[in-house]
Amino acid sequence: MTPEFSRPFRAHDVGTHTRQQMIEAGPPERAALADRFYLLDLERLTAALELRREAAGIRVTGQIHASGNQPCVTTAEPVPFLITEPVNLLLTPHVPEGSEIELADADLDAEPLTGDIIDMGEIAAQALALALDPYPRKKGARVPGVLTEEEARLANSPFAGLKKD
Question: Where are the domains of the chain?
Answer without folding.
Answer: 8-162
